[in-house]
Structures are given as C-alpha cells and as structure tokens.
Amino acid sequence: MKLANPTRFNRISRIVTPLMALLCVALLIPGLYTALYSSPPDYQQHDSVRIMYVHVPAAWVALMAYASLGVAGIVMLVWKHMLAGLWIRAVAPIGMAFTAICLVSGSLWGMPTWGTWWVWDARLTSVLVLFFLYVGIFALDLAYDDRDKGLHASAWLAAIGLINLPIIKFSVEWWNTLHQPASITSITRMANPAIDPSMMTPLFLMAGAFTAMFIVLALARLNIVIAHRKIRMKALRMQAESI
Q1: What is the membrane topology listed in the Swiss-Prot or TrEMBL record (predicted)?
Q2: What mean pLDDT, rounded, does the chain reach?
Q3: From the CA atom positions of the chain, what is the Rg in Å?
Q4: Nearest CA to 10 among 226, 217, 228, 232?
C-alpha cells in the first residue's frame, strides 16, 4: 500500500534501478562466457543447445512479467490503485518483447532439434497465446481516448489472462507434446536436476541477468509513464481552468 504513492515509489526506484543494473552486468558477463565458451555442447543437440541460455530465461521472465501484470490488474480493480494500472502500461511492452524473444529463439532451437520451426503443440500454442495477451493489453490501453478507461480494460484482460499461466506451466505434463518436459520443476528437483551442473550454472546466471534486466527496464518505463501521466493531468487541469 505504501508503494501505491508515486512519489515514494520514485524515491525507492532511484535506489533499486542502479543496483539492478549493476547486478545485471555482474551476472551477464560470466553468464555469456560460460554459455558460449565454457559450457559443453550437448551430445545430441551439439552447439545448438546454447540457444537454451537465451530461450529459457526469456520464457521465465515472460511468465514472471505477466504474473506481475495479473496481480497489478487485480490490485487496480479491487483497490483502485492507479500505480498498479501504470505498472500494466509500463510492463506490457517489455513482457511482449521477452515473449517474442522466447518464441523466436524457440523456433531457431526447434529447427535443428525437431526438424521444424513450429508445431501447434500445447506449450508452443499457449506461449503464443501469452504473446497475444500482451498485445491485447497494450492495444486496449491505447484504444480509448480516456487513458484511464484504457487502463481499466487492460487490468481486466491482465487479470483474466492469469488462467493461461498454469496452462503454460503444466502443458507438457497434461498433454503429449513435442516440447521437452521441464528440467527443473521444483525445489525438490534441485538436488537431482535433469540437467548437468556445467549447463545449469550458465542457465541460472543468464536467468538472473534477464530478471535484473527486466526490473531495470520496468522501473525505468514506469517512471516515464508516471511522468507522462503527471504532465497529462496538469495539461487537463490547465485546460479546464481556461474554459
């Protein structure tokens, strides 16, 4: 509730943003080195497995970003916190970009692995639905002359779209799909993961770097969105006073 105040949020974000930027660089440099050079090629996929170090972190961030949109949508609809709506406006294009990276890198990985760029299986289709949910949220926000009504409509779609997240997560277990099952499904699997530590280390480094990058981009965009709203509200007040 305290973070619902834009001024207080800006004050906190000015501290968090540079720290996350430093963390991103600190993780990205060793992550890229281990992913591209020190990690071994897969015995079946050979060097094409290195696409995993972009594809999987992008997928994780895309899901995490949408989860934050869904929660923000519920907060805005229930408690009427405008900052939650502005978070949706700020994060939707970022999540859309990470989902696009996930889809494109998955296609590039699928061609040498599966022999095809795309199949309409449950995992790929549900992630494509996630991309269209992001596009829909972004489009709804711009579809209204009254931007607050656009945020309200976007909040509804973000909240309703949460139902797609468990479908993405469990699609490889509920249906027979070409997509491989998750190598790390829970904390209990961490002790005996289905992926070698030489590959898991760069994967986690890249996942941490992508997460920190998302936080930096989201906070930067949110500060811009807040500033634009303040300018727009001031312009509307001046216009009303002049009538």
Answers
A1: Multi-pass membrane protein
A2: 90
A3: 20
A4: 226
